[in-house]
Specification:
By secondary structure, this protein is α/β, with parallel strands linked by helices. It has helices at 3-12, 25-36, 73-89, 112-117, 129-143, 157-163, 185-199, 245-251, 272-278, and strands at 15-21, 41-45, 60-61, 94-103, 153-156, 173-182, 203-207, 209-215, 218-223, 229-239, 261-269, 282-286, 292-298, 301-311. Strands 3, 4, 5, 6, 11, 12, 13 and 14 form an 8-stranded mixed sheet that branches. Helix 2 (25-36) packs parallel to helix 7. Bound molecules: flavin-adenine dinucleotide.
């Protein structure tokens, strides 16, 4: 069905099983899962698909290695398995990403996890070689037998400096491990939508359509291209509006405060020397203030992030 056919269909048959509000990666993921289970589902996105947070991430498909320190083993195992699936199912969009950690201490950070467990840690101390080695051994184990990416490698100072001659000579070691790079998250989103629609004719997706209100069982949608309004009567609404989750709830008469406070941001620099120095590796290290900093090869540019800047409303994020 094309766009106008979907609108004509909704006019005559406004009763649907599921309405998903928000066409970022979460809304699209739910759409595809429901579609492959044969559910009739409508996805609406007020802008272009994957134009919100999903377009501006750090472009990593990662297992969240740093959550190991919080003891979140199940979370990391699940995320690593999802990463493996993305590498296997979409190898044209998700590629193995070698990630290098320059290490400046040997034994530092050993007490971070127990102190955090007892709620006695304000700011973690810098992670040293031993802590990083233990973390990477767990991370490799979670990758399992699939071996979608190579095991980690620990480099001596001299080997690391021979390989990366622009690295800070203050290092004691460097570690290289692998995650996934999603260079075009928007393409991943669009392919998942096309996949869902081709599998299930009752799965319909519309961009430039906003959810603007609702009462009782009726939800009002607005076509942003024509300003026309449509009523639908879903049995279930999934609010996948990401950072706009509270404003979408407000349109439905619900008062929530899930989101707010800060935004994470990157800068993208056109720096051929830095780009050549990092090659195809991402670099991951701790800033003096405890923040994790990443330097990521993004096509012919370098993405550097992230910082936390106070922002009250997601519409103020640029
Ligand atoms: C700085 C930073 C870096 C990150 N890096 C990574 C990373 O490397 N890897 C990773 O996996 N995750 C990363 N994340 C997290 C990831 O980006 C988010 O978890 C994910 O993109 C959220 O997707 P979403 O679908 O929930 O939200 P979004 O992608 O924001 O989608 C929500 C959509 O809802 C739409 N919408 C809002 N209101 C309405 C309405 N009324 N009607 C219709 N549509 C509406 C919006 O237009 C938007 O497109 C990062 C996050 C940040 C902040």
């Amino acid at each position: 069905m094309n766009r106008s056919e979907i609108f004509s269909f909704l006019k005559t048959k406004p009763d649907i099983s599921v309405l998903i509000v928000g066409g970022g990666i979460n809304g699209i993921g739910a759409f595809r899962d429901l579609a492959s289970n044969g559910v009739d589902v409508l996805l609406v996105e007020r802008g272009d698909f994957c134009s919100g947070a999903s377009a501006t991430s750090s472009h990593m498909a990662h297992g969240g290695i740093r959550y190991l320190e919080n003891g979140e083993f199940r979370l990391v195992r699940e995320a690593v398995q999802e990463r493996n699936l993305m590498l296997q199912n979409a190898p044209h969009l998700v590629k193995p990403l070698p990630t290098t950690i320059p290490i400046f201490k040997r034994f530092s950070g050993l007490l971070n996890a127990p102190l955090k467990f007892f709620g006695m840690l304000d700011k973690p101390t810098e992670r040293g070689a031993l802590v990083i080695k233990i973390g990477l051994m767990f991370y490799d184990a979670f990758t399992g037998r699939q071996r979608t990416v190579p095991r980690h490698e620990f480099l001596s100072r001299s080997k690391a400096l021979a390989k990366w001659n622009r690295l800070n000579p203050g290092i004691v070691n460097a570690a290289v491990y692998y995650d996934g790079a999603i260079l075009n998250p928007e393409r991943l989103g669009v392919e998942l939508i096309l996949d869902a629609e081709s599998e299930n004719p009752k799965a319909r997706a519309l961009n430039y359509v906003s959810m603007v209100g609702g009462s009782e069982n009726t939800i009002i949608l607005r076509d942003e291209l024509t300003d026309d309004s449509y009523d639908v009567r879903p049995k279930l609404v999934i609010n996948a509006a990401g950072p706009w989750i509270d404003s979408a709830n407000k349109k439905l008469g619900l008062s929530t405060h899930f989101i707010g406070g800060t935004k994470g941001s990157h800068i993208v620099v056109d720096h051929p020397e830095l780009r050549a120095a990092i090659g195809d590796h991402e670099f991951f290290f701790e800033n003096n203030d405890g923040r994790i900093v990443l330097i990521f090869p993004l096509f012919d540019r370098v993405l550097i992030g992230t910082s936390d800047i106070p922002v009250e409303h997601p519409d103020d994020v640029r």
